[in-house]
Known about the structure:
Blueprint: H1 32-44, E1 47-48, H2 49-52, H3 58-63, E2 66-71, E3 75-76, E4 86-87, H4 97-108, E5 112-117, H5 128-141, E6 146-150, H6 158-165, E7 171-173, H7 183-186, H8 193-206, E8 212-219, H9 225-237, E9 242-247, H10 264-276, E10 281-285, H11 295-299
Parallel strand pairs: 2-5, 3-4, 5-6, 6-7, 7-8, 8-9, 9-10
Antiparallel strand pairs: 1-2
Helix pairs in contact: 1-4, 4-5, 5-6, 6-8
Amino acid sequence: xxxxxxxxxxxxxxxxxxxxxxxxxxxxxxxxxxxxxxxxxxxxxxxxxxxxxxxxxxxxxxxxxxxxxxxxxxxxxxxxxxxxxxxxxxxxxxxxxxxxxxxxxxxxxxxxxxxxxxxxxxxxxxxxxxxxxxxxxxxxxxxxxxxxxxxxxxxxxxxxxxxxxxxxxxxxxxxxxxxxxxxxxxxxxxxxxxxxxxxxxxxxxxxxxxxxxxxxxxxxxxxxxxxxxxxxxxxxxxxxxxxxxxxxxxxxxxxxxxxxxxxxxxxxxxxxxxxxxxxxxxxxxxxxxxxxxxxxxxxxxxxx
Length: 304
């Protein structure tokens, strides 16, 4: 799955049994905003990464008028070592989902929504047509809302990438997930570092200059600083103008172990390095995920 760094945050597993550092302890959100959003999602039978990942950022994001929807089901055709989403055979696409998602955005008064997906290698277009239908439905129902897509690699089908880009989302996102050296041990064999860069490059070429291209990666997986910097350079060369960097947190079950809890100071360093490399928007921190403060990117204006 090209995901929000899905990692079951309510079941954190410390590396080698060590206690969690203080900067990773956060109270679970509880507010009327959370309850209202949950009611709408249940009524319209929609999935969000916010709930699927049990994300502690959800209350903050929902109060900002942002949410991340997960389309095309909640079963992924791939099995990445860091991801908590179930792997298997997903159901057919739901043709009513785009309209219901647009209705949810309207009811909630969302000003920025992120639309992501499980990877659908079983579909001829990887789900690109469904993404387009969602963008069109939201544009028609909520013309003032900003739309950010966070796509899979569509199996390397660049025509599918172009098709989604031509729907003109405000932000086209695809996560590189980790540094080049760790792609093989952490990602499903059907994914590749170079393919992810190619997706981003293709999206940049297909989009107008007014639209953003965004990616994200996890740290704490055993990478070194120079490898993170190399990945940031690769992303810039591929046309990315926005990047997020967050802490990998192990989901429950037989998933990859956390190798390090990265200190907040190091996240600050990564964020500054990203800006020094020319990113128009960078956000790095222990709880940062692909859609965290996503609205800040489009509020910032046009990419450079």
